[in-house]
Amino acid sequence: LIAFLAPKPLLGQRVVVTAGPTFEAIDPVRGITNHSSGKMGFAIARAAREAGAEVTLVAGPVHLPTPRGVQRIDVQSARDMHAAAVDEALSADIFIATAAVADWRPAQEADQKIKKDGSGEVPQLAFVENPDILADIAHSARAQSGALYCVGFAAESENLEANAQAKRVRKGVPLLVANIGPATFGKDDNALLLVDDEGVTELPHASKRVLAQQLVAEIARRVGGEMA
Ligand code: CTP
Ligand code: CA
């Protein structure tokens, strides 16, 4: 009932959210990944849905239930996430990249489990860079024309504001959101710094659920829908 009565500033908007980590296979039984519970991205997908949007969540491997009314596409690798997100973004109005994408993947994925050969020798892994999902989508014609509004996240360990502004420009996004404070992996609360071309807005410490609702309201305001 509360969701029914709530304002719907994103009614008619299609929102795509990436969330969680990616998993980059080394062989059939091993891989490398990033720390990410996916909680913030899932909370944003839920809040966007409750704000009236049609929401697609492109999720890496996480242990979270799909928010009600949200379409979910499960992926493993950065390349899978890239393909799904680029495809979905073609018909989206808002793209929100919260995923902790692995920046590199093993250059080769062995098709059989790599075995110890008894000599004590260790495998040498070479890496290649993964595609940048956010940068590619933000530099697409749709985004550049203003038809698609892109939001990035940043995990920074120092110089939060300066790094966030630099990342915003480098990624080509109008809005970049930085996590404030110590690592928030798996936690249920957080604080956010919103960086856009007008400066900085702080969303003080709160649950990820509340922060997601506030962030969705900030995004809705920026794309022209008022949160009543
Ligand atoms: N991102 C992405 N695809 C990648 C890497 C990052 O879509 N291959 C997105 C993340 O989802 C996030 C934003 O880009 O929204 C910033 O990610 P971050 O890891 O902070 O930035 P990087 O550009 O990867 O730079 P670095 O990790 O070196 O700070
Ligand atoms: Ca990165």
TrEMBL record:
The keyword Hydrolase does not apply. One of its GO terms (cellular component) is phosphopantothenoylcysteine decarboxylase complex. GO terms for biological process: coenzyme A biosynthetic process; pantothenate catabolic process. It comes from the Bacteria. Pathway: Cofactor biosynthesis; coenzyme A biosynthesis; CoA from (R)-pantothenate: step 3/5; Cofactor biosynthesis; coenzyme A biosynthesis; CoA from (R)-pantothenate: step 2/5. Residues 11-221 form the DNA/pantothenate metabolism flavoprotein C-terminal domain. Keywords: Decarboxylase, Flavoprotein, FMN, Ligase, Lyase, Magnesium, Metal-binding, Multifunctional enzyme. Residues 15-228 are annotated as: Phosphopantothenate--cysteine ligase. Binds 1 FMN per subunit. In the N-terminal section; belongs to the HFCD (homo-oligomeric flavin containing Cys decarboxylase) superfamily. In the C-terminal section; belongs to the PPC synthetase family. This is Coenzyme A biosynthesis bifunctional protein CoaBC. It comes from Ottowia beijingensis. The gene is coaBC. The chain holds residues 190 to 417 of 417 of the full protein.
